[in-house]
Amino acid sequence: MDTKKLEELLAQVQNQETSIEAALEKLRSLPFDDLDDYARIDNHRALRQGLPEVIFCPGKTSEQITGIMERMLEQHDRVMGTRANSEQAAFVRNLIPEANYDPVSRLLTVSRGEQPPHQDSAPYAVVVTGGTSDRPVAEEAAQTLDFLGSRVERAYDVGVAGLHRLLDKRDLLFNADVIISVAGMEGALTSVVGGLVACPVIGVPTSIGYGASFGGLAALLSMLNSCATGVAVVNIDNGFGAGVYAHQILRRLGQEAGKQVDK
User: Fold this and answer.
1) Which residues pair with residue 101 across a beta bridge?
2) Is the overall model pTM greater than 0.90, yes or no?
3) Distance between CA 169 and CA 154 in Å, rounded?
4) What is the domain range of residue 90?
């Protein structure tokens, strides 16, 4: 149960639209909800962290993914599954028609209600990639940010093999509040970006490259050994993790801005 739904429930009790007993019954599934013998859904996570649990689809059957998603939709208006394949997505969408699937990011999402539009002054993230081949991981990050309600911009195929392409985006980069740098091969883009900007940079090594890239290990080590300061690195191909991390930064910036307005 997210904060909004909990507030609505408490307001219903306060206005005597819902009995205390009925409210307790709805809260009984907190902090977790057993689903047969294959899942224990953490309904309390949105209250603790501000973000609901996300379904990692690999290793799960289509029936399990659908069952988890249906149960989560009883408590949340927005549910996400990551790394879903086309077969899993087709099965889920047959039973949950409102589900959306993007074959590039491999994100499977349900969103009930529209997100409010972003103000031009809202903090934003920029997702940059070394090459077009990094786009699936980059889109996982960018669409995660969008799903969570953060403002996100993109600058793709701006790798160090043609550095002028990155510099052409300097205004976008210089004004960003956080940057996600997605790159394979030797992963040099992240150090370059980290040396240009004042905001936090999140490096995402990808498994793109020839044999000596070792499935992204070379890029990972390059980013971990970055000469630039203010760089954090997530695991290989972990666009989702980078997106969540960036969202947490943007959310805190938005909260601090709200406090300043209140003063």
Assistant:
1) 108
2) no
3) 10
4) 27-111
